[in-house]
Amino acid sequence: MSAATATGGAGIPAHVVHPAEVPGALVKPGAEPILKATAIEKWFGTNHVLKGCSMTVFPGETITILGRSGSGKSTFLRCVNFLEEPSAGVVDIDGIRVAGDPLRPRSKKVREQIRLLRLQAGMVFQEFNLFPHLSVIGNLLEAPLHVKKMHKAEATELAESYLEKVGLIDKRDEYPSRLSGGQRQRVAIARALTMQPKIMLFDEPTSALDPSLVGEVLKVMESLAHEGRTMIVVTHEMSFAKEAADRVYFMEEGEFVEIGPSEQVIANPRDERTRSFLKRFLAV
Predict the structure, then answer these.
(1) Which long-range CB contacts under 8 A does 265-273 form with residues at least 24 apart?
(2) Percent of the chain's residues with pLDDT above 70
(3) Which of 36, 72, 170, 228 has its CA 20 to 30 A from that of 46?
């Protein structure tokens, strides 16, 4: 464990997490987590949105977060990469530790820690967020060239490999306006992958799609899960949670009220709030 991991630069001692401490984690003994979000709080004014949420993710795991709209799922995901500053708590991704404190001035050191944290966490949003004035390949090259300072030839080769992976190499030179919603979301996934993050974060990636286009996006995500890509997915797609997720976190009113292997949480939920939610989707 590095000195940076041990102190986090935030004066908060790091806790060594063992797989046996994590509900449902199917990992080798001695494995180190890739992500630890500890006691995450979030207030918007007087609205207490997240109430001490913690999550531990090991390399190669796919985690789904389920819950009703407004339960805090997307806010938690945005706190993981500091698109929202947590009101309290600590996020550690591969040894980069940042404590949430919206009242502190963001020093140069803190800004750099947040930048490094975000480089480890690729984000795929509901609404694609592609640059409309750039071609597909241009969207994929923007961050590697200007954020990671990669050589153009290297970045282009990498970008094209991920366009192949999502089945869109033939759309390389098209513009987003000429793509379907499903194609745009697949471009967004390829764009996030091109930054080679340690973990992928998906915020309801199919919620803005026509139902006929959902399957093509889920197919790409399932492929990533089966190849061992580390992912956290906020979703209402029960088929994905059942088939691709290793573990499920069920959120209710800003708290994780049930955590476990996907087959247990979905087929045999223990918490009444989880059972009530799932009755809308499955016969449980």
Answers:
(1) 265/66, 266/238, 266/241, 266/242
(2) 88
(3) 36
What average pLDDT is seen over the chain? 89
| Dihedral angle over CA of 150, 202, 121, 227, nearest 10 | -80
Pairing of the two strands 255-261 and 247-252: antiparallel
Average pLDDT of the segment spanning 39-60: 96
Check if the beta carbon of residue 200 is closer than 8 Å to that of residue 122: yes
158 has a pLDDT exceeding 90: yes
pLDDT band at 25 (very low <50, low <70, confident <90, very high): low
- pTM for the full predicted model: 0.88
Contact present, 224 and 174 (Cβ < 8 Å): no
Which tokens sit at 258?
Answer: 């049930």
Q: What is the pLDDT of residue 27?
A: 62
> Nearest Cα to 143, choosing from 121, 164, 127, 165?
121
Reported as a single tens digit per residue, the pLDDT across 99-135 is 998 887 888 999 999 999 999 999 999 888 899 999 9
Mean pLDDT of 35-40: 96
Domains in the chain, start-ordered, CATH in brackets?
Answer: 3-278 (3.40.50.300)
